[in-house]
Amino acid sequence: xxxxxxxxxxxxxxxxxxxxxxxxxxxxxxxxxxxxxxxxxxxxxxxxxxxxxxxxxxxxxxxxxxxxxxxxxxxxxxxxxxxxxxxxxxxxxxxxxxxxxxxxxxxxxxxxxxxxxxxxxxxxxxxxxxxxxxxxxxxxxxxxxxxxxxxxxxxxxxxxxxxxxxxxxxxxxxxxxxxxxxxxxxxxxxxxxxxxxxxxxxxxxxxxxxxxxxxxxxxxxxxxxxxxxxxxxxxxxx
Length: 238
What we know:
Number of strands: 9
Number of domains: 2
Strand content: 15-25%
Largest sheet: 5 strands, mixed
C-alpha cells in the first residue's frame, strides 16, 4: 500500500540520520534494532513505568536523589519538568503543568518510575511556590490521581487554600472522578477546588540549578530532553 511505503520511507530517514546517537533509548523496540527483541509489557529502554495505582505509594525523598538533575522548560504556558540522570540519560519522572487564572498552575500530566510519582507533584508545588498548583481543571483525573491529591490534602506540611464559587479558578467538572464510589462529591470538589503550596527547599533549588547549568554548558539540548520526556509519557500510557 502507498501509506505503508510512505511510512517505511520516513522511518528510513530517521535510521539514516543521527537519531540513535541523540536518542539511544528510542522508545519503540519494534523499530529500534539497538533494543533487540520486544521487551515485556511495561518495560522500555527507560525502565519500568509507574502505574496509576502506584502513584500514591511511599515516595522517594528529595535528599536521596542528589545524583539526579531536574530539567525545567519555562519557555511557554506549559511547563514540563523532567527528573533525569545526566550520566546515563535515564528519565525518572516527568510532570507537565500550565498556567491558569491568576498565575496558578494546574497539573496536566505526570509519569514516573516507581516511588517518584508523588515527588514530581512536590517539585511542581515548589516550582509554582506562591502561585500554587491545582488538579487539572478539566477534571480529567483518575481515581488513583485523586488519591494522590487526597494525601497532599491531608498532609500538614502542604499549605492548602480553597477556592469557592465565583473565584476564577473554581470549577465543577462533569468527569467520572466525581462519581468515585469511595468518595463523596463534596469531598472530591474540596480536593479539586484547592490550591496546593510547598515552599522550595535547598535541595530542590540545587536540582534546578544543576539543570540550568547543564543547559547553559550545552551538556544537553533542552529541545531533545523535552521530546524524550514526551516519549517517556507516551510509553507510560502505551
